[in-house]
Amino acid sequence: MERIVRIGEGTVILIHVNMLCSKEMLSLHNQFGRHGVSAAMKPHYYICHECDEISKVSTPHKPGRYKCPRCGTKLYTYKPGMVEKIYAYNLAALFLFIVANYFPFLSFHVAGSSSHANFTTSIFYLYQEEQWMMATAILLTTIVVPLSRILLYCILFGSLYHGYLPRYAAHMLKTLEKLLPWGMLDVLFLGVLVSIVKLVKMGTIIPGTSLWAFMLMVMVMAAAQSIFDPHQIWERIGERKRLERRKAEV
Amino acid sequence: MRAIERGLTNCPVCHAIVKVPPEGMNEVAYCPRCDSEVHMRKPQAVQKTWAYLIASIVFFIPANILPMMHVVTFAGTESDTIMSGVFYFMETKAYLIAFVIFTASIFVPILKILILIYLLLSVQKGSCMHRKKRKKLYVLTEIIGRWSMVDVYVVGTMVALVHFGGLTEIKAGLGANFFLLVVIMTMLAAMSFDPKLIWDNTKECNAKQ
Question: N- or C-end of chain B: fewer Cβ atoms within 10 A?
């Protein structure tokens, strides 16, 4: 999607509204003038983070994947409507996270007696057994990290969607990047499946509402992660910093 | 053109192009865009990776010998190590589960450790062989690292589900703790390695050919 905008003295600028939503692009334009908008159209130089090769991408505003010419690493992807999609996926994930933590997760029946587990039951029992390390690790990787990632995504992409770049956007993106390998909901999903198969011969397992919500949450978060590419947002943060510096000099 | 020849590198966080002062490889610059510290190469990448790797190898031994979990019934306590779990599923003909457990908890950690040792040795030797394949191996270790946590979560879920007030209980064993440490250490090792080191002898390699 492209849009032509006219500003005084006959200047015509082509605005690409693929990555950032249109409302936001216009506000960027109002804030920064034509330099802010045209930054997205200049050829970009990238240094491959795997092999250190410098490569030039002459059409950074066209949707697609850009790969390093030497080693084939993905430099960046440009997909239309990233902001809207990630915001939507993470709002859904937040809702599903609450559902997954509120409803029963699994119940297990053996010969008349039964036990019920919530999403966090394993952490409580491990603390009771004084397995501090395991309990803390499971708490961090399945509750704290995923939840803070979802919240950060919601705040950052929510405000981008409503047309403004939050003050601490750089810190939020930095934290998101750092937390990425430590959120392990997808691994937990495999673990739950394995233990269900392990136990299914010993008794009856009844999946609760929470398990379905959890499954959906894993899928939604994977979908959001697969289209996430922060380059365009970093570009804007850099642009804002440059302007601030110029103002400070004046 | 490689970035190091021009004294440039990219910020590890926001990928902005940053000029790093030339004196020494460990000189620090600050990213103009996100203010993070930028080095030409990750500082002491090889040493740190070796350290984490050795730690993970040390933890890997008790993780396999000590029991992962104890099944406590009124008849007594039964302890399960990783391998005994795999054998149990082989005997009961649940081959898929046996395969998943074996892959996630034995094959993947060993594979990761071996790949990292190979990468470190080849970087230290300044090898020119298979650079593209080595880069692929590194990406592989980064991706598969987290999946070894499966076993820890299996223990956690079993502890939560098999809990019949003193009659039958499953308790986590010491082995699970060590296994957790193995996973964390191998993840840290993969993170502290710098794949750019694989390509740093490009000039010499081109001259040789």
Answer: C
Closest C-alpha among A175, A180, A178, A156 to residue A236: A156
Task: Tally helices (H) and strands (E) across chain B.
Answer: 8, 8
Domain boundaries, chain A: 2-79+232-249, 82-228
Number of H helices, E strands in chain A: 10, 9
Q: Domain residue spans in chain B? A: 1-40, 43-208
Q: Which residues of A touch B199 (CB under 8 A)?
A: 51-53, 70-71
The pLDDT-based confidence of B23 (bands split at 50, 70, 90) is low
- Distance, CA of A36 to CA of A25 (rounded, Å): 9
Q: Which of A109, A194, A101 is nearest to A147 (CA)?
A: A101
Cβ within 8 Å, pair B199-A52: yes
ipTM rounded to 2 decimals = 0.88
Specify the fold of B43-208. Butyryl-CoA Dehydrogenase, subunit A; domain 3 (1.20.140)
Mean pLDDT of chain A: 80
| B182 CA: distance to closest CA in chain A (Å) | 13
Tokens of B7: 């004294």
Q: Is the pLDDT of residue A19 over 90?
A: no
